[in-house]
Amino acid sequence: MDKFKEIRPIALGIAIKNNKLLVGEGFDKVKNQTFYRCLGGGIEFLEKSSDALKREFKEEIGADIAVKNFLGISENIFTYQGKNAHELIFFYSIEISDNDYKEEYHIADEDDSGIAKWIDINEFKNKNKILYPEEIFKYI
Question: How many structural domains does the chain have?
Fold first, then answer.
């Protein structure tokens, strides 16, 4: 699937601990902008969105998660690195086991690698840091 030519179904996990949100850090070179996004990824054909979320967390940061509640679905049309993209996002509240808890994680992803870390939710609500997609503010 070409994520810049098709509607992409994804699942994102909202992990909150001590008023901090676990997010991956991204950088858009075209916009010259650092942003953050909850972890998760694409849902494969015949895979439930909650199972995709568990798989993505295991693949990307090596963590086992408990999927708690389905929070909602959102349509997101955006531009990244100068390319248009369109996705349907399934949001879930999740918990990371204490055994897998770290202050910072290395993200292993086929597209690129990076870091994930816990950031105080107020940094996003106060607009000190950018959190995508906007619809996530309904759930944090």
Answer: 1
